[in-house]
Amino acid sequence: xxxxxxxxxxxxxxxxxxxxxxxxxxxxxxxxxxxxxxxxxxxxxxxxxxxxxxxxxxxxxxxxxxxxxxxxxxxxxxxxxxxxxxxxxxxxxxxxxxxxxxxxxxxxxxxxxxxxxxxxxxxxxxxxxxxxxxxxxxxxxxxxxxxxxxxxxxxxxxxxxxxxxxxxxxxxxxxxxxxxxxxxxxxxxxxxxxxxxxxxxxxxxxxxxxxxxxxxxxxxxxxxxxxxxxxxxxxxxxxxxxxxxxxxxxxxxxxxxxxxxxxxxxxxxxxxxxxxxxxxxxxxxxxxxxxxxxxxxxxxxxxxxxxxxxxxxxxxxxxxxxxxxxxxxxxxxxxxxxxx
Length: 340
Description:
Pfam families: Pectinesterase
GO molecular function, one term: pectinesterase activity
Distance between the termini: 29 Å
Largest sheet: 11 strands, parallel
Family: Belongs to the pectinesterase family.
Subcellular location: Secreted, Cell wall
Organism: Castilleja foliolosa
């Protein structure tokens, strides 16, 4: 299957960084010191496996490289992926932690598959996964409202403490299943139409572009699956950019579950964003339980004049817990992108 994506769609942003004092915080109440020791020990003397679709590497497919890693792996394994298209569905099982997929920043490899509902192109269930310089595509056709099960995820991340740097995620409906666990996305590109960032993860998206594909009468960016206010989950977008042709078709999030928690801060919201900003999914009973917050955004989509009544215009004190790596306990596990 031939499938190409213009490199012009992958962008690296250079906006303001999070303040230094906000990057290091005490660990949250769920943190265990043994996690630090385990993570630190795993990073010593990483093993590198080379993958090249055209030959010349240790393997020709990413799947075969993953299969070669033993269950119960305790050391970082970097799978260095040469430029090219890899038409395969890849799964990283829960018993294979500490794996990194690493591509060329100038010519990122493209992992592509055309699975639909319950069939993401990349499924990651292991902890401490990382991806750097990679494009992940679900090439299934755009949902037409007639076909059932037309959702087409590019990524499902269900492991804990995962990071994604300079990665692109391409699809239509349900592009990124940010399923569960703590995750960090930086300098990434995510596109879609309906619920294209969804799940019950606790994730920080930094300096990334969220692109609404034109053509639908209405689009939903996030659908966060939080059942009640006791669940410590949520999606936070800091120094991000919402792009796409509008005007005013895309909601930042909707009430898929009773208590979703989504925050946009210091971000640029384009005219694709609907004036109301957020949707209660025609369930007014959730208006008092959702946490849809905004702080210091700019752009035509950030106008507060017609915002939904249940949206929260956050103060500096309100937003403070969300806009640091401490939101995902990152100072205790998060590492810079691997160098190969």
